[in-house]
Specification:
about 25% helix; alpha/beta; FAD/NAD(P)-binding domain; 22 strands; five-stranded parallel beta sheet; single chain; four-stranded parallel beta sheet
Length: about 400
């Protein structure tokens, strides 16, 4: 009987995990199923571009994994029972349930409203393709001089604000942050960022606590108000609630707690990668939710699964960072060099060279997913008999 591996989610982490597993394990005794709500691979790091009116390349998952041994199942995950080893799905034919022997949980994250009233009802976001398309449609209807407020001074907020300001110079774009905007960057990078904001006419509101959102703008902690025809919420990400509804050990964030091989500390047949897992990086710090974390987590999980199933040594490699790439529209950017534990160094590349590097990184990540069979030499190995016969634990 084949060992069933189910991968939930085909974002950067899940897609890389599925492709790497297909290269590590022999199809004669393993079957890999990739479940994703969208039939296409979505470049999440480009969704601010989609919202700004640009079209993204179409990559159907069935085409991506054709001939790899990975079965793509377009469906929405509604529940996971880690004690019965089952996943509940809903697709175009209705509800269904599938079983697994090993689960790779990579359902990612969505927008976090932090309990601020009005965000769900009145704010737009770029945390997923439906949200980005909804924002795109709303922006298309805006008249000259309309105000767009981006809430959140992190990477997503900065990229969204600059992309919108560059693509729609007829709009009045502003950005508001609870702390400083880009305050983690080096002095050189912050100076460049301020210069780009000035050039694009972006108004910045720093140290501004947003307490409520309505259809005409936002209210701040000091009883002030920032008017806006459109509010774009980029103030962080939250995990989907499915994992927290199981018996998996999860952190306060709802992320699955994993060891250094991305294996659940409570359920050894479950691995979590990308935003869905909370893993320790350099210095014992949790890895941040990002593509830069998710892809290495996927590599580690896939290699660990393959090692354990084939009876070979489980490889372990430290996870950390080297740089942060920030796009500032299509022709400007920042490449911030960082320490392995993600602290900004004094050096940074800015301007058009940085934009080219960022584009190369984004294109490379998408290309590696679109070509899963050429990223690694073929090392397909058979599942060890002892592992194949491993019994399902009794339900508590």
């Amino acid at each position: 009987m084949k060992h069933r591996i189910v991968v939930l989610g085909a974002g950067y982490a899940g897609a890389h995990a599925a492709g790497r597993l297909a290269r590590r394990l022999h199809s004669d005794d393993t079957e890999i199923t990739l479940v994703n709500a969208d039939p296409d691979f979505v470049e999440r790091v480009r969704l601010h571009q989609l919202a700004a009116g640009q079209d993204l390349r179409h990559r159907a998952l069935r085409d991506v994994y054709a001939g790899t041994g990975v079965t793509v199942r377009p469906a929405r995950v509604t529940a996971v029972d880690v004690d019965r080893r089952t996943v509940e799905l809903v697709d175009q034919h209705g509800a269904d349930e599938i079983g697994y022997d090993t689960l790779v949980y990579a359902l990612g994250s969505t927008v976090a409203d932090h309990g601020v009233p009005g965000v769900a009802e009145h704010a737009f976001h770029v945390a997923g393709r439906p949200g980005a398309l909804r924002l795109r449609e709303r922006l298309h209807d805006l008249a000259r001089g309309a105000t767009v407020l981006v809430v959140g001074g992190g990477l997503t907020g900065i990229e969204a604000a600059t992309e919108l300001a560059e693509s729609r110079p007829d709009l009045d774009v502003a950005i508001a942050a609870r702390g400083g905007i880009g305050d983690w960057l080096s002095d050189k990078a912050r100076r460049h960022l301020r210069g780009v904001f000035d050039r694009l006419g972006i108004t910045g509101y720093e140290h501004t606590d947003i307490t409520r959102v309505d259809e005409t703008g936002v209210f701040t902690g000091d009883a002030g108000r920032i008017p806006a025809q459109v509010t774009v919420w980029t103030a962080g990400f939250a995990t989907h609630p499915i994992a927290a509804a199981t018996t998996l050990e999860v952190a306060d964030t709802g992320q699955i707690v994993v060891d250094n091989t991305m294996r659940s500390v409570s359920h050894p047949d479950v691995y979590a990668v990308g935003d869905a897992g909370i893993a320790q990086g350099a210095g014992g710090k949790p890895l941040r939710m990002s593509c830069a974390s998710g892809i290495p987590m996927a590599w580690q999980a896939a290699d660990a699964i393959a090692g354990r199933l084939t009876g070979r040594t489980v490889p372990r490699f430290p996870l950390g960072y080297f740089l942060q790439c920030v796009s500032l529209g299509r022709h400007d950017g920042i490449i911030q060099f960082v320490t392995f534990d993600d602290q900004a160094r004094s050096s940074a590349i800015t301007g058009r060279p940085a934009a080219r590097i960022k584009e190369f990184v984004c294109a490379g990540a998408a290309w590696s997913i679109a070509h899963p069979t050429v990223m690694l030499p073929s090392l397909r190995r058979h599942v060890a008999a002892a592992v194949e016969a491993e019994p399902v634990p009794a339900t508590p």
